Structure formats: C-alpha cells, structure tokens
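Example record

One chain of 403 residues, shown exactly as stored in the release files.
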Amino acid sequence: MNATAAPPRLVILLLALAGFASMASMRVTDAMLPALSQAFARPVADVAQNITLFAIAYGVMQLAYGPLGDRHGTLRVIGLATLACAVGALGSALAESLPMLLLFRTLNGATAAAIIPLSMAWVGDNVPYEQRQVTLAHMLSGAVLGLISGQVAGGFLADTLGWQAAFMLLTLLFLGAGGLLLTTLHRQPQLSPPKADQGRIAFFSRIREVLLISRARRILALVFLEGIAAFGALAFVASHLYTRLDVSLTQAGLMVALFGVGGLIFAALARPLVARLGEPGLAAGGGVLMGLGFIGLALASLPTLATASAFAAGLGFYMMHSTLQINATQMAPAMRGTAMAVFAGCLFLGQSVGVSLGGLVLRLADSLWLLAGAGLWLLALGLAFAWLLRQWHGERATAAIAS
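Predicted structure tokens for this chain:
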C-alpha cells in the first residue's frame, strides 16, 4: 500500500480494537491485586508477579514478532496473535491456583506482544511522517481506552461478579477483534502483503542491525527507563490508594483510570499540541507532568487530589511516549516491524523490571516512596529526552543546510 494514501479507516478501527483488548488485559489485574491476594491467600507482592511475567513475556516475544511481521505481513500476524490471546485470557479465568494464573498470564503476555508494536509498524509503513504522530495518537486511543477499562473493570468486577468475570470478558474481546481483522485481511489481502523477497527470518541479524544505529540505542534506552518508572509504579497505584485512602477497589480503579483519560485528552488535542510545542516541548512537558502526577499520587490525602494527579501523570506520559514512538518509527525504516517490536519490548521489559523493583521496595518501605521516586525519575527522564531532541534537530538542520 502506498504510504501517501490515507489508510483505510476500518483497519485503524480494528487495530484500535485489538489494542484495546491488549492493554485491558495488561492492566486488568492492577486494581484487583488485593482481591487476588485474598483469593489465593498470598501477599500482594506475590500476586503482582502476574504483571511481571506478563511484561517479561511481552518483551521477550518481540524478538519473534518483529521479524515475523516483516516477513509475513503485520496485519496477518496481529490477527492470529489476537485470537491466541483468547486462550490466555480464558485460562486465567479458569485458574484455581496462583501458579496456574501466572502460567496463563504469561501466555497472554506472549501473545498480546504482537498487537501494538506491529500496529505502529503498519502505520509507519502506510502513513507519511507528517501525519504519523496524529494517526498513531488516534489509533492508540483504543489502547488508552483499554488501559482505562482494564483498570476500572478489574476493580469493579472483583468487587461484584468476581475477578474471573474480567478474564471471561477479555476472552470475548480477543475473539471478536482477531476474527474481524483476519476476515478483513482475507477480503483485502493487499492491505498487508507478505514480503517474500526478504528471505529467511534472520531474528538476531535484524535486531543487531537496529542496535548498531546510535540514535536507536538511545531511544531504546529511554523507553526502557520510562517503562521501569511509569508502568512499574502504575501497577501499584490502585493498591496504594486502596490502602492510603480507604476506598473500594472499584473507586481505586476509577481514580487510576484517569491516567488513561489523560491519554485520551492528548489524542484529541494531538494536532495542535504537536504544532505548538514541538517534539522537545512535548518531551519536557510530559516529563514534568508525569513527575508531578506520581508525586501527587504518593502524597494525596483526598480522592480528588489522587484523581487530578493520575490525570496529570497520564497526560504527561502520552505526551512524552508519543514523541518517543514517532522517533522510533524512523529508527530503521527498512526494518520497521523489527524496530518497533524491539522498541515495545524494551518498554515492557522495563515494566517487568519496574514491577520487580516495586515489589522489593514494598517489602522494605511504604508505597509512598515507590511512587514519589518514580515521579522524580520520570521528570529527569523527560528533560533529558528534550535535550537529546534539540541536539538531533540541530544536527538535522545543519545537514539540510550543508546539502
């Protein structure tokens, strides 16, 4: 498909639906950690391993899905992986012990790994750079809605029908999204043609080529550090509010869901914000908002303050992360599927490290210190990214003048 043509709205919608299910499954256990702790008679830090294992599997499997997408067509791989996610979600719903839950959550992470990074790669292949950040923001609004819905539904269903109901709902979502995507591709195979001329799938050689690019290494390091602090801390926010503010799991999930609402606001305002602030402004502003947001969540003594802080942290995250994404789509244009998969892998491997570190902090100190530390980390990271972007833009302008 020609990158100068507008991508079919139906494909963007289906990718958003698959992304919705993927992010909902990733965040669904955040608000239900206390309920899982009671159900399996294990500490919160132990049941939080389901988030860690999901993220590890998600990150590691990027090594496979990137090259597979480059070889067989991104949409085809996304559709098949989305159907496979239903197995992990159904197994999680039926799990009768913590080890079984951990097993199926790992499977869910391994299969969900294909959806969002390959969706971004498809947009990168089919949308010109000038329109790409806005298109990505619109498509990823589905993922943001999934993040919101996963956190809210996880807490609400744990309080009402039981935590298993959330996984049954996810099973239906994955079946619907995957089936519709593969049906659309069957009718319009030109949307994602296989690249048969690329030869065998050279997993490590493709990844090595991406890592040889200096700018790519810096972007990957930044997103890894972002994942440690942002997603690692986010996993414990609902439990922190549940304990600190003495609210229900449903209320805690609703407050944390404002993180995702911040992302939706960014998606709605992406065009004017990109034009007004530019990439360095988005990175710096995002880092400041995330820092203040997580520190506010740590110290909040009222639900209204926690809600406002979650919104600020979410808006800041999507301001900075979308800027990382747009730069990542240009890391290695000839191997965009692999590059975006490695990018997503670094983000979620960072999350797995962050959740593990968070569990360690919770054994030694209060969750207040965990969230406040993450806020300071993200503030510094945003400012560092903005400085790098100014350097890169200066180099690009100098090269343009010289040519």
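Notes: Residues 22 and 37 are 23 Å apart (CA to CA).
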